[in-house]
Amino acid sequence: MAKKKSKSDISLICQECLTKKKTSHRNYRTTKTKGIQTQNLKLNLRKYCKFCQKTQSHKEGAVK
Fold first, then answer.
1. Residues facing 29 on adjacent strands
2. Cα–Cα distances in Å, from 50 out to 15, 27, 42, 54?
3. Is CATH 2.20.28.120 the classification given to domain 7-61?
4. Residue 46 has what pLDDT?
């Protein structure tokens, strides 16, 4: 019998674009383990946004 999937897919949304430009650019897609999901912790990373052309804070969002 196959194991259940222990990771889920999430996307990272640029917070600078979300607040100033009112658009949610989903620049990155990654996975998150189930253990972290049960603690209700949101992933927050500093990544490069090609729309802002700067390194900005990216927060976890749902995959579309």
1. 11
2. 13, 8, 22, 7
3. yes
4. 92
